[in-house]
Write a structure and sequence with these properties.
There is one protein chain. This protein is α/β, with parallel strands linked by helices and about 575 residues long. The protein has 2 domains: about 1-335, ABC transporter type 1, transmembrane domain (ABC transporter transmembrane region fold, Up-down Bundle), CATH 1.20.1560.10; about 350-570, P-loop containing nucleotide triphosphate hydrolases (Rossmann fold). The chain contains 18 helices and 10 strands. The strands form 2 sheets. It has a 6-stranded mixed beta sheet, sandwiched between helices. A hairpin with a 5-residue loop joins strand 9 and strand 10 (about 565-570). It is elongated.
Length: about 575
């Protein structure tokens, strides 16, 4: 339990903790009001049914004299009216408290989802490559929501615990023997419920998370490969996997939903059983009618009437925490790491980019690049070739600042590339990947890629990429919708949009990571001709398999599997 609260408080902000303390204080006030609500109705019924009790009860008589009442009827009507106002205000107070509970628990969804998304965006590239994107989506969409359910359960438990304590105290004062007997029965049954129902709900929570993880993974992989699925004409295996994951997720929720009602039904039966047992016990003890004990019985009926729902809510809150506990673990793990925190120190690239004795490895003692030394002059047109897995893309990722070398240095005009200036360095890079990711929006939005849209600049880079005329002639220009993943465009057109996107921020270095490998030879030749033309005043770095792609490069570097670097000049 200590570990649970340690994780919970570590992901709550200082403001959250203050809000939580406020809720605890308000819940104590609510509990006092509920205690008054339970204990006040019986004296009112007593004085309303028997006016003489007004004067025989010292406390009531004192109130009667303090307010100078002259008529018993007026006194009863006044007390009744005051109780009506009290119960109305009690309802408003409870409504306000439930609003605060909802604001805290449900309002955390926005904050948790935002913090998760912010952390994922701030994650270093190497860490990101170890993550499954479907898990990241699940954490933001579902686990953050499940976390709010956990908070709701916890707050519900806290609020009801105070009510139980206060009402239980009153019942002890009235008759400690009967209260002790009731306590033994309730505690015994609560332990029984925790060992059976709660344990089953906890298992359902684990199953829910496992099946939901598979659910997201199947969805993402299938929709991302929709064309392949259509061509295979065999959807049965994937449908079966989806059905298993979906059914497992549904069954876990069904078990949780069903078992969550069990404590209420069980405690209701137990509560009625206790009342009946009390009546039987009193009849057996006095061997007579028990009209004289009706006040005592009525008090315990009222107490149990309020106590049982609270006990049920406490158990429900506990079960809700167990069912959603895996969400706390996931969110805690995803928030408890340091994101990239780079400075804004500017860096200029006027002469050379120097790699000196670079060593890099993904796994210990398994080097990908070893003792790499390389100089790139401003304006160079260079290419890296080599077998798959030889380290070409890794080397370029080091150059553009996505990876940091394990040893060795990267300098730009004699200035070391480090955390203080790497952010500025990355802004000088225009990157065109092998797989072009376009989202379902306009051409302009895809080119600007989340930044401010400058229509004149967008048209300029589209003209540079040799696609503006086509869009204006056959479509709606920069307002053309490209479809999900750019499905409305051909491969070559998507590639030209990627070039325009890379050029939009006027980079000094343009990187092509096997960007034309999926195109036919003629289309590739045209696009490469356009790229060489565009990059006349830029540094160009190309990763390629086809030699035709790198014909315009002055230098070609071959990376073999040693890994060492050999230079071939043309």
């Amino acid at each position: 339990m200590t570990h649970f609260f340690s994780k919970l408080f570590s992901i709550l902000t200082r403001h959250d903790k203050k809000f939580l303390l406020l809720l605890v204080l308000v819940s104590i006030l609510i509990s006092l009001v509920e205690m008054v609500g339970v204990t006040a109705i019986l004296p009112f019924i007593t004085i309303a049914s028997n006016f003489t009790s007004i004067h025989t009860n010292p406390t009531i008589e004192m109130v009667y004299q303090f307010f100078h009442f002259q008529n018993d009827i007026h006194f009863v009507i006044t007390v009744g009216s005051a109780l009506l106002l009290f119960y109305f205000l009690r309802s408003l107070l409870n409504l306000g408290y439930f609003y605060l509970l909802a604001k805290f628990s449900k309002g955390r969804y926005h904050l948790l989802a935002y913090r998760l998304f912010e952390n994922y965006l701030g994650m270093d590239y190497r860490s990101f490559t170890t993550k499954n994107s479907s898990d990241l989506s699940k954490a933001i969409i579902d686990e953050a929501q499940n976390m709010t359910n956990l908070l709701s359960g916890l707050l519900l438990m806290l609020s009801e615990i105070f009510i139980v304590i206060f009402i239980y105290t009153i019942m002890l004062i009235i008759n400690w023997k009967i209260t002790l007997l009731i306590s033994i029965l309730l505690i015994t049954n609560a332990i029984l419920l925790i060992l059976t129902v709660s344990r089953s709900i906890k298992k359902s929570g684990v199953a829910r998370e496992e099946h939901q993880k598979k659910f997201y993974a199947i969805l993402q992989s299938t929709l991302a490969n929709f064309k392949m699925m259509k061509l295979s004409s065999n959807t049965e295996p994937i449908l079966k996997k989806f059905a298993d994951a979906s059914a497992g997720y549904a069954n876990a929720n069904i078990r949780n939903e069903t078992l969550s009602h069990f404590p209420r039904l069980f405690l209701e039966a137990l509560g009625f059983g206790i009342i009946i047992f009390m009546v039987i016990y009193l009849v057996y003890k006095y061997q007579d009618n028990i009209s004289g004990a009706m006040a005592l019985i009525s008090m315990f009926v009222l107490g149990l009437y309020r106590l049982m729902p609270s006990a049920n809510r406490i158990l429900n809150g506990y079960n809700q925490i167990l069912f959603n506990k895996s969400s706390l673990d996931i969110i805690h793990n995803d928030l408890m790491y340091d994101p990239e925190n780079f400075g804004d120190t500017p860096i200029s690239f006027e002469h050379t980019l120097q790699l000196s004795h670079i060593h890099f490895e993904y796994e210990e003692a398994k080097p990908i690049l070893n003792d790499i030394t390389l100089t790139i002059n401003k304006g160079d047109k260079i290419a890296f070739i080599g077998e798959s897995g030889s380290g070409k893309s890794t080397l370029v990722d080091l150059i553009i600042g996505l990876y940091r070398p394990k040893s060795g240095t990267i300098t730009v005009d004699t200035i070391s590339l480090e955390e203080t200036n790497i952010k500025a360095w990355r802004t000088k890079i225009g990157y065109i990947p092998q797989t072009i990711t376009l989202f379902d929006a306009t051409v302009a939005q895809n080119v600007a890629f989340g930044t401010r849209i400058d229509e004149a600049k967008i048209k300029h880079v589209l003209h540079q990429a040799n696609i503006l005329e086509y869009l204006e002639t056959h479509h709606e220009g920069i307002e053309t919708m490209v479809g999900d993943g750019g499905i409305k465009l051909s491969g070559g057109q998507r590639q030209r949009l990627a070039i325009a996107r890379a050029l939009y921020h006027d980079p000094e270095i343009l990187v092509l990571d096997e960007a034309t490998s999926a195109l036919d030879t003629d289309t590739e030749a045209k696009i490469m001709e356009e790229i060489y033309r565009i990059c006349d005043d830029k540094t160009l770095i190309i990763i390629a398999h086809r030699l035709s792609t790198i014909e315009g490069c002055a230098k070609v570097y071959r990376i073999d599997n040693n890994p060492t670097l050999m230079c071939e000049k043309r």
